[in-house]
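re: ur msg from earlier - yeah i can do the pyridoxal-5'-phosphate complex, just paste it... oh wait u already did. ok heres what im feeding in:
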Amino acid sequence: MAASRLYLDWNATAPLHPAARDAMLRALDLFGNPNSVHGEGRATRAAIEAARRQVAIIAGAEPSHVVFTSGATEAANMVLTPEFRMGRTPLAIGHLYVSAIEHPALREGGRFPKDRVSEIPVTFDGVVDLAALEALLAGHDKATGLPMVAIMLANNETGIIQPARAAADIVQAHGGIFVVDAVQAAGRVPVDINGIGADFLIVSSHKIGGPKGAGALVSRGEVLMPKPLIHGGGQEKGHRSGTENSLALIGFGAAAAAAVAEFETRNVAIGALRDRLESGMRLAAPDVIIHGAEQSRVPNTCFFTLPGLKAETGQIAFDLEGVALSAGSACSAGKLGESHVLVAMGRDPQLGALRISLGFATTDEEIDRAISVFAKIAGRRKPAGVAA
Ligand code: PLP
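and the outut:
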C-alpha cells in the first residue's frame, strides 16, 4: 500500500483547523444578509462581529480597526495606494518603499505607479537593511507627498523575522506611513500593531488554519485610511464594499482564536520539531545549507539548499516520495525557478532552495519520515564534478 502523503508546506497554506471547520459547519445555515436589520441578518452580523473580535486579538488591535477583505493580497492592494484620507481631508502619499524580499502581493506596489515604488535592500543575512531605509527616506522628496514603507514581519521563504520595530522608528522620524505584512508571523510570533509601531497590518486566514479567501487590513486608528479599493454598498464602514463572505470570516475568526489559545504549546512543539528536523538533515547531509539558521526565525520554517540538487528536481523528488514541500515561494501561482529572496540576500541565484514548513498538526513521526526521505534524496545526488 502506498505510504500516506506528508504535508510540509504550511507557509503556502494550512489545512483547515478543526475549530474553524466546526465553526463553519455551524455557520452554514446562517443565511441572513449581515446588512439586513431583521433577525436573520442580525444573527449573521453577530457572528461576523465575533470573528472581528477574534481576528483583532491576533493582531493586538481594536476590533473596530479590522477591515475584512478577500485575503492578504486584497488588503495589500487596498493599503498600498497614493490616495489616503485623514478623516475627511485627502492626504497624498508620494512614494512607496518596499523591501526586496516582500511577497509579490506587496512587492508589486499595489496602486502606486511603478515609477513611484523603490526597493529597500536586505543584508546578506536576509534582514531589511535599516541603514539603506534611513538613506532612502532621507532622500525622499516630501513635496510629492508622505513616504510609505512596507515590510514583512516574517519572510515566507526563510522565516527570518524582520526588524519591524526599528524600521517603525525610522519611518516615524520621517513622518511616513508604515505597513507591515504579518501574514507569516501571525500565530507564530506575538503580533501587536501598537508594539510594532505599524500604522497598518495585513493578515490572512488560510495561513493560520482558516479558509482561503479571507484576510484583513488592520489599522492602528480609524482616522487615517486608504481610498477604498472596492466601491459599492458601503460595507465594512465604507472601506470594503460587497456583502461579507460570512462563512469564510467566521472560519477565519475561529482559526485566529485557536492560534491565540494554542500559541504557547503549538509554537514550542513546532520549534522543537523544526530543530530536530534540521539536526537530522545536517547529520544526513553535512553540506546542507540552511538559510537564516543563525537568524531569529519563526519556529516552523526551514529553507535549505542541498548542493547539486536543483530546486525543481528536489521538489519533484520529495513529491514522488509523498512529501509536499515547496521550491521558493509557492504562493506565487506555481512559478518555479530562482528565489527572489535568495537573490535579494546576495546569494547565488543558481542555488536551488527548498522550503519545509510545519504546522499545528505536524507530528514526531512525520519529522522522522521527512528526515529519512531527505537522507535518501541527498544520498542520490551526483558527487560534485561528475558529469551528468
Ligand atoms: N504575504 C505573504 C508573506 C504571504 O506568504 C502570502 C501568501 O500567499 C501573501 C502575502 C498573500 O496572501 P493571500 O493568499 O491571503 O492573498
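cool cool. The longest strand covers residues 89-99. ping me if u need the other ligands too
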